[in-house]
Specification:
The chain has a six-stranded mixed β-sheet. It has a four-stranded antiparallel β-sheet with strand order 8-9-7-10. A two-stranded parallel sheet has the order 6-12. The two termini are 19 Å apart. It folds into two domains: 272 residues, Aminopeptidase, CATH 3.40.630; 108 residues, Alpha-Beta Plaits. It is of the alpha/beta class. The relative contact order is 0.18. The protein contains 13 helices and twelve strands.
Length: 394
């Protein structure tokens, strides 16, 4: 390992650079939050992030991988190549209730900090703009991974806001698909016998799923919404649609569960006589495999900034989510820690959490997250054993 003095000097430099950009990063976070854009429609957010990185002398490529709102921003020319992932899509109806404005701004901040020392520590840092995380099928990172955006990278990281700081949160594999039942319309009072009720098909399927939950693993999840239930109460519904997500700890477990869920929808079709179509679910999210060594380094650097990591016990299992960062973790070392924004009792995907994502605690999380990631990268470069492991693809 290089001298501790050198490492601390580099950390101080990146933290000072991030501190100097504090107002800019908070303003960027608030701007994205105030203008929420849905998956793969994040034109403004992608432009603002690209502009901030371009102004910091990054080499920026926009519209990469045939995705108009994806970008790559690179600084430095060292042999160790680290990706800092930015997410910036919002949720329908509740905006940035998952705090992707914080993720994106922290990623920019970490990049700006590391650019100040990249060549000195043998680093190439790339801020990867990844759209469409919330779709839970064929997410932006999956498409960018398939299309070569992560080629040559040795490790990737990001921070995600939550109610607590967690170094290695549980992130499940997930598959999202759409369901359509098509029956036959008829007058619901005069000629019900001439109809084929697509709503009945959906009801049978949902009932079967409810019963299936008794026989699934504690870490499995099945949840969804009916997106179209019919047109009028006096018309036998000729068409119903739904969107469902199935989750398991690993892709293997997911591949065992998804066919069982699909059979529930097939039961609805068989019972009602409606025709069934299932679309999607072809590019599921993988369960995330945290690199424990890198996660420990991140935690130590975050604690030096005053972050606290409570022992959540069983609560950690309950708060499981999913991310397309899991697919990146199958091909390279990854960390995806949660960073707390003091939001309780509000939690992710609640309207109340949306408001917390532009609070003073959220602005602090942007800066702390940027510093913790940047200092983690510095620590990696100053540890020859870890650097060699990453560059060897281990």
């Amino acid at each position: 390992m290089d001298s501790p003095g050198m490492q601390e000097k580099m950390k101080a430099t990146v933290c000072q650079r991030i501190t100097n950009a504090r107002e800019q990063l908070a303003a960027l976070s608030h701007r994205i939050h105030a203008y929420p854009e849905l998956a793969f429609q994040e034109a403004s957010a992608a432009a603002w992030l690209s502009e901030a990185l371009s102004n910091a002398k990054f080499e920026v490529q926009t519209g990469v991988c045939d995705l108009p709102t994806a970008f790559l921003a690179r600084s430095g020319s060292g042999p160790l190549r680290i990706a800092i992932c930015a997410e910036y899509d919002a949720l329908p109806g509740i905006g940035h209730a998952c705090g992707h404005n914080i993720i994106a701004s922290a990623a920019v901040g970490a990049g700006i900090g590391l650019a100040a020392v990249a060549d000195a520590i043998g680093l190439t840092v790339t801020v990867v703009g990844t759209p469409g995380e919330e779709v839970v099928n064929a997410g932006g990172k999956i498409l960018m991974l398939e299309r070569g955006a992560f080629a040559g990278m040795h490790a990737a990281m990001m921070v995600h806001p939550a109610a607590w700081d967690v170094a290695e949160p549980l992130m499940l594999a997930a598959s999202c698909f759409e369901v359509e039942f098509v029956g036959r319309a008829s007058h619901a009072a005069a000629f019900p016998d001439r109809g084929i009720n697509a709503a009945d098909a959906m009801t049978v399927a949902q009932t079967a799923i409810g019963l299936l939950r008794q026989q699934i693993r504690p870490t499995d999840r099945i949840h969804g919404i009916v997106t179209h239930g019919g047109d009028a109460p006096n018309i036998i519904p000729a068409r119903t649609t739904a969107k469902y997500i199935v989750r398991s700890r690993t892709l293997q477990e997911l591949n065992e569960l998804v066919p069982r869920v699909r059979r529930c929808f097939e039961a609805g079709a068989m019972a009602s006589g409606a025709a069934l179509t299932i679309i999607g679910g072809d590019k599921p999210y993988a369960g995330l495999c945290h690199d424990q060594e890198l996660a420990a380094i991140y935690k130590a650097n975050a604690e030096e900034l005053g972050r606290k990591f409570p022992d959540l016990g069983a609560e950690r299992e309950r708060m499981a989510a999913s991310t397309d960062m899991g697919n990146i973790s199958l091909v390279m070392p990854v960390i995806h820690p949660f960073i707390g924004i003091d939001s309780l009792p509000a939690v992710n995907h609640q309207q109340e959490f949306t408001a917390h994502c532009v609070s003073a605690a959220a602005d602090k999380a942007v800066i702390d997250g940027a510093m913790a990631m940047a200092c983690t990268v510095v620590s990696i470069t100053q540890n020859k054993a870890i650097s060699r492991r990453l560059m060897a693809g281990l």
